[in-house]
Amino acid sequence: MLFGQSKYNISLTEKGKQYVTRTEKNKTWVRCLSLKLSEVEEIHENPSTNTAEVKLVFRKENKTPFHILLSDDLKSDEPIKRTMSFRKTNEGWKLCD
Questions:
Q1: For residue 90, which of 13, 14, 16, 57 sits 20 to 30 Å off, Cα-Cα?
Q2: CA gap 88, 27 in Å, rounded
Q3: What residue spans define the domains of the chain?
Q4: DSSP for 22-88?
Q5: Three-state DSSP state, 92
Q6: Residues with Cβ within 8 Å of residue 27, at least 6 apart in sequence
Q7: Are 78 and 41 in contact (CB under 8 A)?
Q8: Interval 42-67: pLDDT, tens
């Protein structure tokens, strides 16, 4: 998973229900914003293990009213930088868990 999750006890209005992405038993997930890949900064491929470490930059888009629940670093308009691992398969490169 890219980013951590926080838990809040809230009641959704009809308007708020449009942001629900998943529901299980007594848990509901809501969309806070969208992330769009804006840049691939570096790729370090390791052919001997068929893996690669990739430095990516994401920009934040489509903030919902629920974005106020995010941590301060996610609320800002600053891009998010992450290093992610990929594995080369017969179907192409796949994100590692």
A1: 57
A2: 35
A3: 18-95
A4: EEETTEEEE---EEEEEEEEEEEEETTTTEEEEEEEEEEE---GGGGGS-HHHHSSS-EEEEEEEEE
A5: strand
A6: none
A7: no
A8: 999 999 999 999 999 999 999 999 99
